[in-house]
Amino acid sequence: MTAANADKPIITLDNVTRSFGAVQALRGVSAEIREGEFFSLLGPSGCGKTTLLRMIAGFDEPTTGTITLDGKPMAGIAANHRPTNMVFQSYAIFPHLSVGDNVGYGLKKKRLPKAEYDREVEEALEMVSLGGYGPRAAHTLSGGQRQRVALARALIMRPKVILLDEPLSALDKKLREQMQIELRRLQRSVGITFILVTHDQEEALIMSDRIAVMFDGQIAQLDSPEALYRKPNTQRVASFIGVMNFLEAKASGEKGDKISLDIQALGKLDIPASALPAGMKSSEITRVGVRPEMMSIVLEGAKSTGHEIDAEIAESEYYGDMTYYLVSLPGKDEPVTISMRNTAGRAVLEPGSKTRVSFSPESIVVFR
Ligand code: ATP
Q1: What distance in angstroms lies between residue 20's CA and the mean position of ligand 1's atoms?
Q2: How much is the mean pLDDT over the chain?
Q3: Which of 82, 59, 86, 93 lies closest to 197 in space, CA to CA?
Q4: Which of 124, 170, 217, 268 has the fewest CB atoms lying closer than 10 Å?
Q5: Chain centroid to CA 358
Q6: How far is the CA of 25 from the centre of ligand 1 (A)?
Q7: Is 23 a pocket residue for ligand 1 (Cβ < 6 Å)?
Q8: What is the arithmetic mean of pLDDT over 332-352?
Q9: Would you say the CB of residue 49 lies under 6 angstroms from ligand 1?
């Protein structure tokens, strides 16, 4: 379930470009960001996500194209006159001020009566689980607490949109995971649109209502986390979001709502016609993909599921809860990756073990 208002865009990006001399950082980005949604810009370093975020914030202007925010074109409108607030990667905390004065910094120019100012600051601190921390010196805070102060400082201004530039990247893994859940919960409860820039695909999947995957200054796919993972449009998106095994494939015919395929190493099988991307003909299929968890290693004595092939374990990587196997299949040079949950009593298979691999035709992804 999403808290987003599906009908109302809060931000419209219309063919936005940005060039820095010969470098084309953005090459025509169009998208609508919905009111109240948690939206992520995800992509590798240099794909243009920070450039786009900075232009929404008003720290930079598009070379061509338009940005509309809450119904108003933003060209020429300075950052401090936009209904946005940015949380920086560095948090930009003032170390010489108290926690409370850091949070209330933006309120100062409103010249509120002291009691009202104090109440607003305390409310913002409570939202980020730092109630009572107001008098503390900011430089005594931990990394996670600084991150919360930066967030409270944005929230207190009641912006329509909060922009977050890799806000969790400085935190260690455990704390980052905890903050991801907290940030998501907070966004749901305040209902403000959040736009997150991240290069961490897991973070984007956990937190977002929708994700724009960007490569080379363009949006490659804009979808919900589940749609991106299950139905990536291209091999590049599929490899960026998790792991995918790629296999050559050719269609040999169609029967009702099934397509008959001949897939490298997996053999002949029927897949649902719904797996075909919109507007594509089955005769155009050249490659398919299968996620590692959609294949499994058949355990001794297990009943056959119908789609099984002979295989040999090439390598195993043990992760505690999971084991990732590199598995050689006849007819394919590169081994495929298969992940298996380490349930009670299941031994990790040694390299060289002969086994069988099963898979479901429903899990096969077709690429353009
Ligand atoms: P990262 O995750 O590393 O921050 P990013 O996806 O946010 O990467 P951007 O910072 O938006 O990428 O940069 C996109 C491209 O534009 C890069 O090639 C970068 O070198 C270039 N670029 C960004 N800002 C400037 C600038 N002020 N002057 C010149 N080139 C710039």
Answers
A1: 9
A2: 92
A3: 86
A4: 268
A5: 29
A6: 6
A7: yes
A8: 91
A9: yes
Q: 46 C-alpha to center of ligand 1: Å?
A: 5
Q: What pLDDT, in 10s, does the model give residues 55-95?
A: 999 999 999 999 999 999 999 999 999 999 999 877 788 88
- pTM to 2 decimals? 0.90
Query: Ligand 1 pocket, 51 CB below 6 A?
Result: yes
CATH 3.40.50.300 range(s) for the chain read 3-237
Looking at CATH, the fold of the domain delimited by 243-367 is given as OB fold (Dihydrolipoamide Acetyltransferase, E2P) (2.40.50)
- Which of 229, 179, 277, 176 is CA-nearest to residue 42? 229
Tens-place pLDDT, residues 151-170: 999 999 999 999 999 988 87
CATH code, 3-237: 3.40.50.300
The Cα–Cα gap between 277 and 368 comes to 7
Residue 2, pLDDT score? 47
Q: What are 200-214's pLDDT values in tens digits?
A: 999 999 999 999 999
The average pLDDT across 41-45 equals 96
β-bridge pairing 267-272 and 287-290: unpaired
Where, residue-wise, is CATH 2.40.50.140 in the chain? 243-367
- Rounded distance between C-alpha atoms, residue 265 and residue 331, angstroms: 5
Q: Given ligand 1 and candidates 29, 40, 50, which is best to mutate, with the most ligand atoms within 8 Å of its CB? A: 50
Q: Whose CA is nearest to atom 18 of ligand 1?
A: 46
* Window from 96-110, 215-229, 313-327 with minimum mean pLDDT: 96-110
Rounded average pLDDT over 268-295 = 93
Atom of ligand 1 nearest to the CA of 217: 14
Give the residue, out of 51, 164, 166, 214, with the most ligand 1 atoms within 8 A of its beta carbon, to mutate for a pocket test.
Answer: 51
